[in-house]
Amino acid sequence: MFALRGIHAGYGQVPVLRDVTLAVPDGSIVALIGPNGAGKTTLLRVACGALAPWQGRLELDGEDHAGRPAHDLVRKGICHIPEGRGIFRSLSVRENLVMFAAPGTEAEAVERAVDAFPRLGERIGQTAGTMSGGEQQMLALARAYIRQPRVVLLDEVSMGLAPAIVNDIFAFLLRMAAEGSSLLLVEQYIPKVLGVADYAFILNRGRVTFAGQPSELENESVLSHYLGAEPVTPAVAAGA
């Protein structure tokens, strides 16, 4: 179980997250949705160790890792795929995959990435920054597949991509979950993410306003209500 409990965080003196609690059970896909400026990216930055919370716990199997640096959390099996691809644009596809791999596993890493995304095999010697947006996103996602992390934090993986590419990416996310990774997925394509998620949270103005089953949000009026609703209690959010 990966969980954030009672998280307060922000930048300088400006609060962004206020008493946020959510849980990501092993092998599950958890959707985190909300309006722009709700604090979703900030929450992922806390979850990966890029931003230390002011207060609260960042738990993996009950052990608190709040405030630990990002490289420590990577060693614990937490992988963050940020918005905007997160690749080395000036390196080739092969060089990116080698950079993503653990020492001594480079050849196997390239094989695994090409197996997951055959198009990367067709572009293996190409400079990453010259590929299409969808191909760059595949390369970014390959990092998670190569390292086989316990928890993957994904920020807007479908942004700006053609529907066919989005379908491929969501199929890949389901494959990762089936192979044992837990996914916390921030996504603007709400119907798509609710269709694959086991649990859903809505974040609005830095607080959790909904925690429960994705099926509860299928009605558009219900979804709109929760996007503007009062926050749920931390105990309810922790129960997902």
List the helices and strands and how they pair.
Elements: E1 2-11, E2 14-24, E3 29-33, H1 40-48, E4 55-60, E5 63-64, H2 70-75, E6 78-81, H3 93-100, H4 106-116, H5 118-122, H6 133-147, E7 151-155, H7 163-178, E8 182-186, H8 190-196, E9 199-204, E10 207-212, H9 220-227, H10 234-238
Parallel strand pairs: 3-8, 3-9, 6-7, 7-8
Antiparallel strand pairs: 1-2, 1-4, 4-5, 9-10
Examine the secondary-structure arrangement and name the CATH architecture.
3-Layer(aba) Sandwich
Number of helices: 10
The CATH topology, please?
Answer: Rossmann fold
Per DSSP E runs of 2 or more residues, the count of β-strands stands at 10
Structural class by secondary-structure content:
alpha/beta
The biggest sheet, with number of strands, parallel, antiparallel or mixed sense and barrel status, is:
6 strands, mixed
- Class in CATH? Alpha Beta
Distance between the ends: 11 Å
- Give the spatial strand order of the biggest sheet: 6-7-8-3-9-10
Radius of gyration: 18 Å
Give me the strand/helix succession.
EEEHEEHEHHHHEHEHEEHH
Low-confidence stretches: none
- Round the mean pLDDT to the nearest integer and report it: 89
Features:
single chain, 240 residues, alpha/beta, Rossmann fold, 6-stranded mixed sheet
Overview of the structural elements:
The structure is a single chain. With 240 residues, the chain is α/β, with parallel strands linked by helices. The chain has a single domain, classed as P-loop containing nucleotide triphosphate hydrolases (Rossmann fold, 3-Layer(aba) Sandwich), CATH 3.40.50.300. The protein has helices spanning 40-48, 70-75, 93-100, 106-116, 118-122, 133-147, 163-178, 190-196, 220-227, 234-238, and strands spanning 2-11, 14-24, 29-33, 55-60, 63-64, 78-81, 151-155, 182-186, 199-204, 207-212. The strands form 2 sheets. A 6-stranded mixed beta sheet has the order 6-7-8-3-9-10, sandwiched between helices. A 4-stranded antiparallel beta sheet has the order 2-1-4-5. β9 and β10 form a beta hairpin. α3 (93-100) packs across α4 (106-116), α4 (106-116) packs across α6 (133-147) and α6 (133-147) packs parallel to α7 (163-178). The longest helix has 16 residues, at 163-178. The protein is globular and about 45 Å long. The model has no long low-confidence stretch (mean pLDDT 89).
